[in-house]
Amino acid sequence: MSQRTPTSAPPRAPWSYTRFQQRFAPYLFVSPFFLLFAVFGLFPLLFSLFLAFHLWSPLDGIGNWKFVGFENFQLALGPTDMFWKSLKNTVWIGLLSGIPQHLVALPLAFIIHHSLRRFQGAFSTILFLPYITNAVAIAIVFATLYSERLGILNYLGGLVGLDPVRWLGDPNMVPYSVAAVVFWRYVGWNTVLYLSGLQAISEDVYEAATVDGANGWQKFWYITLPLLRPMMFYAFTLTIVGSMQLFEEPFMLLNDGGGSGGAGLTSAMHIFNTAFRDLDMGYASAMSWLLFLAIFALSMLNNYLFTRDGGNK
Amino acid sequence: MTVTPAQHATPRAPTRRARLPWQRVPIWALMLLACFLSVVPFYLMFVWASHPSAEVFTFPPHLWFGDAFARNWQGLMQVTDGQAPRQFWNSLYIALISTLTTLFFCSLAGYAFAMYDFRGKGALFAFILGTMLIPPLVMDIPSFLVMNNVLHWVGQPRALWVPGMANAFGIFLMRQYISSALPRELIEAARMDGATEFGIYRQVVLPLIRPILATLGVVTFVGAWNNFKGALIMKLSEPDTMTLPLSLRRLGGGATNVNVDWGAIMMLVVITVIPLLIVFLLASRQVISGLTSGAVKD
């Protein structure tokens, strides 16, 4: 260690490289995040907020934006634009995929945890597999399954006497078809989350309940569910935030327009089209902030529902 | 509520009564069905990649492998103008460099937050966590503009990996692990022995946090490999920069076009998915327990 001559008054410890680097190392170690966030986070965020009140295309060049006040927001919320429709599509597809995800994942995790404990690792690996796959690749596989005349789904339906379904052609079917892919991809992830939540519940609690004469259903209702609440809250939050930004699956299955009648056009797709196809950056920024508000509101609602009765039930 | 790795490993006493075998039949049937549905799309992509293009769509559909694997590879080279290996390399390059830089910067910051006391630590960490609340979608447009009008990085791979090098999730995951798995005395001891601060990180901390490095590594690799929207926005669409997801989009987009080489497309699908399967299966236990232990610990 290099010792330098003291430069300050005698009562203070001599300046040393060791001490210096000990004091400043942590700042240096955490600084990359803040540097990157300043350039790729904070500045863009403020710029996006600025753009939301302007009319601007990147082709106009920096500085040539026109202030329009709340016009972008009014346009998005008005009846003429696709934004409302896309928001409704997004929420609808989110409900169709999200609710079944949790309705299936919770019992699956429960069964794995309580009845198939020895195979826990194998089951969670297999169920987790869809989560790590490539959305574009898997959308192509599902598009093939959904093929109207030659797809496997309609083939199987035909075997039991069902008429062919226009999975990706019928606007009424489209939200279900997209939601099925999303469901497939994330149900295993939720199962694994719930499984780890269940594993964290101490066995003693159940034993105490058994001593008190609780039956299986009572144990589930009065022990498992309440103790699983933090994990459920976390899993719900992830589902909400993820569903509201759904992009790749419908984009690949239906093309950027969202299929016939735009039934599969999500808000993320609409914003993407507006920004990068129509180059209307100000308007797209305004819509992205509206979507952010929608996500925020739904997260708050989720938070409210979970904290309302303070851990009871 | 906390989930620690130690609790995962705790064996539970077998308190429940053994059930009769026949009662377990529905449970097993249900689980096997769930596993079957999880795996079947993967199985089918391999089946389709092994059949001649014209037979990907046949009626009734093929459910077993064919012998056209090599033919479809040639078809893929044809429809991509021989660029498929290059696209694979582009994806691999971005994923690997993302992974290495993310592991380095996140573990460094996570270590600082876990093992040092410094002024402003709490506020800085809270700020980092707070940035996780911003939906990525809000960042798409302005980060494109920064890349396009300020840095002129559009069309270059670094537009994809630089912004995420030190990310909130990674720092959080690292801090959680390091503060629960590494004793402070260890750091003090190394300091007594005269190690520099970075030396301690490199020689003491890094070797001890391999499990969580594996978790974050796989997650980052998978995320970067799959980054479709980012590549689309940053226009990695030239032959020398195109990544696999963009190539897939170009060949199989909309999936309504019947006059394309479906065998070749399925070959590309398989090539896109295989590295993910390999990386995940090598570390699945570690990834699952690492991810879920970071999940609810706060």
UniProtKB/TrEMBL annotation, chain A:
Question: Mind listing the GO molecular function terms for this protein?
Answer: ATP binding
Entries under InterPro entries matching the protein: ABC_transporter_permease, MetI-like, MetI-like_sf
Q: Indicate whether Transmembrane helix appears among the record's keywords.
A: yes
Classify the source by domain of life.
Bacteria
What's the short name of a Pfam family annotated to this entry?
Answer: BPD_transp_1
Question: What is the protein's major site of localization?
Answer: membrane
What positions does the domain ABC transmembrane type-1 occupy?
Answer: 87-302
Kindly give the PROSITE patterns that the UniProt entry links to this protein: ABC_TM1
Bilayer topology annotation = Multi-pass membrane protein
Cell compartments where the protein resides:
Cell membrane
User: Cell membrane: present as a keyword of the record?
Assistant: yes
Transmembrane ranges, per UniProt, are: 27-56, 91-112, 124-146, 173-195, 227-247, 286-306
The alphabetical list of record keywords is: ATP-binding, Cell membrane, Membrane, Nucleotide-binding, Transmembrane, Transmembrane helix, Transport
Which family, according to the similarity comment?
Answer: Belongs to the binding-protein-dependent transport system permease family.
Spell out the protein name for this chain. Answer: Sugar ABC transporter ATP-binding protein
TrEMBL record, chain B:
- Would you tell me the protein name for this molecule? Sugar ABC transporter ATP-binding protein
**Transmembrane annotation, as ranges:** 25-49, 92-116, 123-147, 159-178, 199-225, 262-283
Family named by the database record:
Belongs to the binding-protein-dependent transport system permease family.
Q: Which InterPro entries match?
A: MetI-like, MetI-like_sf
One function term, GO molecular function aspect: ATP binding
Source domain of life is: Bacteria
Mainly localized where? Answer: membrane
Q: Which residues form the ABC transmembrane type-1 domain?
A: 88-283
PROSITE patterns associated with the record: ABC_TM1
Q: How does it sit in the membrane?
A: Multi-pass membrane protein
Do the record's keywords include 4Fe-4S?
A: no
